[in-house]
């Protein structure tokens, strides 16, 4: 049984079949849609809704692979002793192995929710049309939060003709996931397109005057808009796991095989924090790549085929016409630039004690595979080698 019909859930189901599992697979999701990818929601689905393709697999795939879909179905409870799921329609299902791929929910603020209409989220496929209707030419849009989603939304909204203000409480946008040079460059690109990026600003009040929404900041500034959009991140959906007595700490705690504190219950995706043997801590990562990797790892473990391959975290973002890709641990002590950062055509290498631990590319996605290999092999390369465009990255990765 797989609870959660998103990226991780559908990928795990497909991986079970790929590995030769012939038993029953039931994929349960509370949304009515076929499993789909979330990254396009803030980009293609908003910009070109008629052309966007988000389904992971066509409907025929699930029939061919004998994967039972229970869409629009809520799971109310897990009985880990009797190994049964209580469903929202009053029925129940037994399980031998269970994967929780329940993902995460938008982090919300009561201050904003009390405003009612005009406050938007972008987490599900059903959120996109409502938001798309307000991102019209000249609309005043206030985005609360300057993380990856907030900045991607700002980029798409401006492209659709909206006037955008981003309010970030922290000292900078994308502070948790991007090095200072990249943050400054992206911030400048947004401002050049007309986005008002406010950092270090705390929200203290919200009000409505007819169709106009107003946000009051701690410094007394009042911002008015036609729509407010959440961009302050997500919270792991741990309710089922917590109520079933599984170990949680802000997320569902899993080992390196994505196994929870119950030997036959697994978790993968945005809801799971995986044990990192190197740091001795549980780490949760929100990305398309992580959902796929954990789904495959959980499927292998459920079949008794543990996957111990080392993996370098990776994700990407598209903003202001720039494709930015990130790999590894962004907490590097030194950053080396190869190429032209001002022209958004470069790679950046992050070093810790002389060892390559992180990489970022701007419109240089073709370099990322080599960079990830170098990070995985903990390459120790001289800064002048890393910064020299004449040094072939593929050759360096092959020789590392």
Task: Provide a descriptive summary of the structure in words.
Helix 1 crosses helix 9 and helix 10 runs parallel beside helix 12. By secondary structure, this protein is an alpha/beta fold. It has twelve helices and 26 strands. The longest helix has 15 residues. The radius of gyration is 22 Å and the shape is globular. It has a five-stranded parallel beta sheet with strand order 3-2-1-7-19. A five-stranded parallel beta sheet has the order 9-16-10-11-12, covered by helices on one side. Strands 22-23-26-25-24 form a five-stranded antiparallel beta sheet, with helices on both faces. The protein folds into three domains: 173 residues, FAD/NAD(P)-binding domain, CATH 3.50.50; 123 residues, FAD/NAD(P)-binding domain (3-Layer(bba) Sandwich), CATH 3.50.50.60; 79 residues, Enolase-like, domain 1. The two termini are 42 Å apart. The model has no long low-confidence stretch (mean pLDDT 96).
Q: Assign the CATH class of the largest domain.
A: Alpha Beta
CATH superfamily of the largest domain, by name, is FAD/NAD(P)-binding domain
How much beta, percentage-wise?
A: 25-35%
Summarize the amount of helix as a percent range.
Answer: 25-40%
User: Could you name the ranges where pLDDT drops below 50 across 5 or more consecutive residues?
Assistant: none
Oligomerization status of the protein chains? single chain
CATH topology type of the largest domain:
FAD/NAD(P)-binding domain
User: Biggest β-sheet: count, sense, barrel?
Assistant: 5 strands, parallel
Instruction: Report how far the terminal alpha carbons are from each other.
Output: 42 Å
Query: What's the Cα radius of gyration?
Result: 22 Å
Number of helices: 12
Number of domains: 3
What's the rounded overall pLDDT mean? 96
By secondary-structure content and strand pairing, the structural class works out as: alpha/beta
